[in-house]
Every structure is written in structure tokens, then in C-alpha cells.
């Protein structure tokens, strides 16, 4: 390969990662006597295990490796899969990582980062579909799983409200406020007003702690009590206030604060 081509290849890798690099390379430079790259056999074996046994047969890095193969078809995806897991700690954290942080990992360019965020969006939308119009008390674990998927890895605080009808079916899911890394302004009057607009008779309040620790603060507890007092005269019940963190979730009803 000429010096000019080498420089171009290096530039593509440093700027965009392997997904963009592969578009600039020929489909194959192998001759009939050249052995296939070693990683192709590994991919085939991983695919076969997934088909025959299911995802439980694969380790996290292998699932991520197969996902990355959709974006990177001409290179070994195992090193990048392992690098992403080492950087973010878990498969869930990789899929929910912001694009600018994903691109800090060597070999993860704009296309790969976008693809991972797209997969994350599909997963969240699917989880939301599982709980919409369901009786929340009958699908509580799914509701919590959805909230974790939607909020656990957000970098700023979000204040989410799940609005329920008289039969406790989930009729709306809205993020009312976004704040900073450690605070979200909450306006009880606006929460109750929105509940009345939707003919909602009960709500579940959810917010996240970007620090990862879901322990409620004094301000969290006081705000919840204010919401309860604001809703009671109008027949609107606050069923629970759930706090989501990377390291767990806490229910204020479970703590007997409500």
C-alpha cells in the first residue's frame, strides 16, 4: 500500500472509526488461496449458538460483537466490543451511553455510535409499548423496567409522570421537566393541571439520580408530600414516587414515605 493510501486509512480510522473505513476499502482483497479471517468462524459459531440455544448462550461481549458486525463487516469486532464494555461497565450502559462518549472509544466512529443509540431507542420504545394501556399494578415489574431503561443512564435529572385512569391503566407517559446533574425543578400545580387535562385520577412520579444512588433526598420527600397535598382535594392520588439510579431503584411507597 502506498504512503498516501496509508495516510488516508489512518485518517479514516481516527476520525470516524471502522464503519466509515470499510466503505473506503474494496470488498475483498483475498485470493482463492488466502485463508478467511479468523474472526469469521467465531461470528458463525456465535450466530449458530444464538439461533439454537438463545441469547443466554452468549456472553455480553459476544452479543455486542454481533451487533457491531452489522456496522463493521470487514474487521474483527471483538476488540471494540470488549473496549466498549470495559469503558461503560455493562451492555445496558453501552447502549445508553451518549454518542459523544461512545466516540471517545478507539474504533467507535459516528456511524457506530449512531447505530448503538438507534438500538437503544428501539429497546426503549418497545418497553414503553409493553406497559401502555396496561393496569399498572398488574404489570409493576415491567413499568419499573421501562423506567430504568428510559432514565437510569441519563446525564441530567428528568422528572417523568405516568398518568393513570380510574382503572389504573397507564394512559400517558410524559417527561415534564429536565434539570441539571443534581436538580430538576418541579411545579406541583403544573403536574396536577396536566392530570386534569388528561382526566387522570392517579399518577406515578418518577425521576432519576445521575449520581447513580437512588436514595431520596429531603427535597425529594418534601416535593412528594406537596404533590400529595395538591392532588388530594381534586381526587388525584399519588400512587408512588420512584427514584431511578444506575445502581438500583427506590419506591417511596416501599419505604413507607407515602
Describe the structure.
- 29% of the residues are buried.
- The protein has a five-stranded mixed sheet with strand order 2-1-3-4-5, with helices on both faces.
- The model is unreliable at 7-16 and 18-31 (pLDDT under 50).
- The protein folds into two domains: 3-123, 5' to 3' exonuclease, C-terminal subdomain (DNA polymerase, domain 1), CATH 1.10.150; 133-251, Cytidine Deaminase, domain 2 (3-Layer(aba) Sandwich), CATH 3.40.140.10.
- By secondary structure, it is α+β, with helices and mostly antiparallel strands.
- Helix content is 48%, strand content 14%.
- Helix 1 (3-16) packs antiparallel against helix 2, helix 4 (60-69) packs across helix 5 (78-88) and helix 10 crosses helix 11 (218-231).
Q: How many domains, in number, for the residues?
A: 2
CATH superfamily of the largest domain: 5' to 3' exonuclease, C-terminal subdomain
Helix content: 40-55%
Number of strands: 5
Number of helices: 11
Give the terminus-to-terminus CA distance.
69 Å
The proportion of residues in beta strands is 5-15%
CATH topology of the largest domain: DNA polymerase, domain 1
CATH class group of the largest domain: Mainly Alpha
Helix and strand pattern? HHHHHHHHHEEHEHEE
Output the strand order for the largest sheet.
Answer: 2-1-3-4-5
Shape: elongated
**Assembly status:** single chain
CATH architectural name of the largest domain: Orthogonal Bundle
Amino acid at each position: 500500500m502506498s504512503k498516501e493510501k496509508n495516510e488516508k486509512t489512518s485518517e479514516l480510522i481516527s476520525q470516524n472509526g471502522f464503519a466509515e473505513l470499510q466503505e473506503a476499502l474494496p470488498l475483498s482483497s483475498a485470493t482463492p488461496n488466502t485463508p478467511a479471517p479468523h474472526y469469521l468462524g467465531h461470528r458463525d459459531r456465535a450466530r449458530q449458538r444464538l439461533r439454537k440455544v438463545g441469547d443466554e448462550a452468549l456472553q455480553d461481549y459476544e452479543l455486542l460483537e454481533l451487533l457491531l458486525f452489522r456496522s463493521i463487516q470487514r474487521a474483527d469486532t471483538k476488540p471494540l466490543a470488549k473496549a466498549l464494555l470495559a469503558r461503560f461497565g455493562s451492555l445496558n450502559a453501552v447502549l445508553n451511553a451518549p454518542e459523544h462518549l461512545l466516540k471517545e472509544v478507539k474504533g467507535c466512529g459516528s456511524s457506530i455510535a449512531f447505530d448503538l443509540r438507534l438500538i437503544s431507542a428501539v429497546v426503549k420504545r418497545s418497553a414503553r409499548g409493553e406497559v401502555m394501556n396496561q393496569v399498572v399494578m398488574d404489570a409493576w415489574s415491567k413499568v419499573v423496567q421501562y423506567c430504568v431503561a428510559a432514565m437510569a443512564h441519563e446525564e441530567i435529572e428528568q422528572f417523568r409522570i405516568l398518568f393513570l385512569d380510574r382503572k389504573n391503566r397507564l394512559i400517558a407517559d410524559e417527561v415534564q421537566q429536565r434539570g441539571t446533574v443534581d436538580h430538576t425543578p418541579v411545579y406541583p400545580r403544573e403536574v396536577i393541571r396536566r392530570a386534569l387535562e388528561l382526566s387522570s385520577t392517579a399518577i406515578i412520579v418518577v425521576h432519576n439520580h445521575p449520581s447513580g444512588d437512588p436514595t431520596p433526598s429531603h427535597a425529594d420527600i418534601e416535593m412528594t408530600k406537596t404533590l400529595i397535598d395538591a392532588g388530594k382535594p381534586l381526587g388525584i392520588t399519588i400512587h408512588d414516587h420512584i427514584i431511578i439510579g444506575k445502581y438500583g431503584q427506590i419506591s417511596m411507597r416501599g419505604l413507607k414515605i407515602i
